[in-house]
Design a protein that fits this description.
single chain, alpha+beta, disordered C terminus, two-stranded antiparallel sheet, 63% helix
């Protein structure tokens, strides 16, 4: 059988017409050298979801991968940037609320320093010490009197002070014992620390309306719990007098002087 030429010479023209068909079939079945090299040099063929081959150069494949990585990085960067902006807004407002609370309390402290003086009335001091013994207190806070307040309160964090209005001492009010007992119960239970912890939660959750509702409810519950503790130390005939004292306190709060306090004074807790 005639063999096709390995070079580019068409051997069909040199053969009889009867053998040309056989050579043509053989040439179709035998790939050319340059075709074989092209197939060996080409990248592997990938297939689509439909099973169709997809020819792709290495440069195009690398470019697509780089684009996908860049897109993913941009998405993550945009998310981080948005979260960082929200964090900065939250921190700035929380700092402003905390600073406002601190400045108001410092103003209140200056008011106390300028208007308070220690109680020197022997009868009041004796009553005060007797209540401390009744509540089994080892140490009593400083008892002061002020002309700038209308309702007794306890102030301070580390060095606590009970402040009473001067009118209670001048008028020899019968409610003085109840007021002092109420404030000493606050002191014994360390309610001031809890009140400042509540205020801290409000500073951190300034964006949440439930935080302000929580503050109001917790302060109200704190006062109710304190009143219940005071009633345990009263005689049966004193319970009604204590209730009348609470009513008179509410009446005084309507016309009381506004104080720059936040959870440290009894007058604010009763609202």
């Amino acid at each position: 059988m005639p063999i096709p030429s390995p070079i580019g010479i068409n051997a069909i023209n040199l053969m009889p017409l009867a053998d040309r068909s056989i050579v043509a079939v053989y040439q179709e079945q035998t790939p050319e050298p340059h075709a074989i090299n092209h197939e060996l040099d080409s990248p592997p063929v990938s297939y689509s979801a439909e099973g169709l081959p997809i020819s792709m150069s290495e440069e195009l494949h690398t470019a697509i991968q780089q684009h996908q990585v860049q897109h993913a990085q941009n998405s993550v960067l945009s998310q981080i940037t948005f979260s960082f902006i929200l964090l900065m807004i939250w921190a700035a407002v929380a700092l402003m609320v905390a600073l406002r609370t601190t400045l108001h309390y410092m103003k209140f402290q200056r008011l106390l320093r300028n208007s308070c003086e220690k109680v020197n009335n022997p009868a009041v001091i004796q009553l005060y010490k007797g209540l401390g013994v009744e509540l089994k207190l080892k140490r009593l806070p400083v008892l002061c009197v002020s002309t700038d307040i209308d309702i007794p309160m306890i102030a301070g964090i580390f060095s606590k002070t009970i402040i009473i209005p001067e009118s209670l001492i001048k008028n020899q009010s019968q409610n003085l014992r109840y007021y002092l007992l109420h404030e000493l119960v606050h002191y014994k239970r360390r309610d001031i620390i809890y009140m400042w912890a509540i205020q801290l939660c409000v500073c951190l959750h300034w964006f949440n309306p439930l935080a302000y509702i929580m503050k109001r409810e917790l302060l109200s519950l704190c006062e109710l719990s304190c009143d219940a503790r005071v009633l345990k130390n009263l005689e049966a005939n004193e319970v009604e007098d204590y209730g009348n004292m609470l009513l008179s306190t509410v009446e005084m709060m309507v016309v009381a002087k506004p104080l720059p306090t936040h959870g440290v004074a009894w007058r604010n807790n009763k609202t």
